[in-house]
Amino acid sequence: MPELPEVETVRRGLVSLVIGKTIRRVDVLWPKIIESPEVDQFRNELVGETIEGVGRRGKYLIFHFTHYDMVSHLRMEGKYEFFPEATTLDKHSHIRFVFTDDSELIYNDVRKFGRMSLMKKNTGLQYKGIQQLGPEPTNETFDLAEFETRLNKAHTMIKPLLLNQKIVAGLGNIYVDEVLWLSKIHPEQPANTLTTKEVEILHQAIITVINKAKEAGGTTIRTYLNALGEAGHFQQELNVYGQTGKPCPRCGTPIAKMKVAQRGTHYCPHCQQLKR
């Protein structure tokens, strides 16, 4: 699944590829991907619109058109592919934006879980899913005191709590495993049992891991490619995710895998001990 660093990489790729392009036609081959408005209106309203910018909030992309915002969530395996001229669609190509210069932007989604919503200009951040997001994991927006307050009130295990986008935006399974390993925190540790020092370390680890992953262009697991058709390379820096049985980079203990809240979870049994 594309997580925040992957979506940010897609955003940067789109900025370099489609800014200033004007839509001549929109083909919708799988209508359920269009959340709102009705499919015919979605297609018609975008004709003649120019892409002025592409933003991001959490895992959501926000396309800024002349008169509209389009919120796009890639979900499990959604991706955008740019072609400088007309191309043949494959069976997983569901939305095609044809530009006036004959180049095309195609939304491809194996599982068809992605969604798009067209909204009034400058209202994309008011999209319901975006309104429910926690802060971006940056030094400027991710407040340590507020984070500690949220954790102190939570009796749930730390891993599923971090996967909750209301706590901090953009973390998924891969990066939560990496963050918890870096912080030496067991994935099943109840959030409200963490000390002030542990919360501080965890807070900084979230910012550090996400920043490094963004710089690396994200993590490629199986099929993920960015908008330029390139694979990210943060997977070369993964310490625990997908490393089952390999020695922990910190202590040499074999990395273990278990299920936490129905999610495959990788951790070091020595470095990340569950405190009772």
TrEMBL record:
Active site per database record: 2-3, 59, 263
Oligomeric form and interacting partners: Monomer.
Cofactor(s) needed for function: Zn(2+)
Transmembrane segments: none
Alphabetic keyword roster: DNA damage, DNA repair, DNA-binding, Glycosidase, Hydrolase, Lyase, Metal-binding, Multifunctional enzyme, Zinc, Zinc-finger
Cofactor, how bound (note): Binds 1 zinc ion per subunit.
Role: Involved in base excision repair of DNA damaged by oxidation or by mutagenic agents. Acts as DNA glycosylase that recognizes and removes damaged bases. Has a preference for oxidized purines, such as 7,8-dihydro-8-oxoguanine (8-oxoG). Has AP (apurinic/apyrimidinic) lyase activity and introduces nicks in the DNA strand. Cleaves the DNA backbone by beta-delta elimination to generate a single-strand break at the site of the removed base with both 3'- and 5'-phosphates.
Name used for this protein in its record: Formamidopyrimidine-DNA glycosylase
Formamidopyrimidine-DNA glycosylase catalytic domain location: 2-114
CDD domains to which the protein is assigned, alphabetical: EcFpg-like_N
UniProt EC number: 3.2.2.23, 4.2.99.18
Record family assignment: Belongs to the FPG family.
Entry binding sites for DNA: 92, 111
HAMAP family: Fapy_DNA_glycosyl
Signal listed as a keyword: no
Organism field: Candidatus Enterococcus ferrettii
Domain FPG-type: 239-273
Chemical reaction(s) catalysed: Hydrolysis of DNA containing ring-opened 7-methylguanine residues, releasing 2,6-diamino-4-hydroxy-5-(N-methyl)formamidopyrimidine; 2'-deoxyribonucleotide-(2'-deoxyribose 5'-phosphate)-2'-deoxyribonucleotide-DNA = a 3'-end 2'-deoxyribonucleotide-(2,3-dehydro-2,3-deoxyribose 5'-phosphate)-DNA + a 5'-end 5'-phospho-2'-deoxyribonucleoside-DNA + H(+)
